[in-house]
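User: Before I run my own analysis I want an independent prediction to cross-check against. Here's the chain; please return only the structure tokens and, at the end, one sentence I can use as a sanity check.
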Amino acid sequence: MRVLSLLLVALVGLIQHPLWLGQGGWLRVWELDREVAARDTANRLAAQRNAALEAEVRDLRQGSVALEERARYELGFVRPDEVFVQITEPKVAPAPEAPRDTRTAALR
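Assistant: Structure tokens:
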């Protein structure tokens, strides 16, 4: 009876092996499911980016406002009746450091 029980346990183990560890087993299915979820997230982000780019292209093709805005900010274009004024902050030189007394530094 004991041998028969061990034989049945071994057969059940052999049957379960492909189910859990085989090519189409549960572990592989879970791994593929995680990959699909990660790619869905990446695809969703890419779709949002593509929609934003498509809206920008549509604006550039249809209206001159977006084109003018881009030319002003990225290329520095100015209309003929405008005056361009650029204000820059004066560069402040760092304060010179006080000379160190090497004799007192060695005593510390």
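Sanity check: The mean pLDDT is 82.
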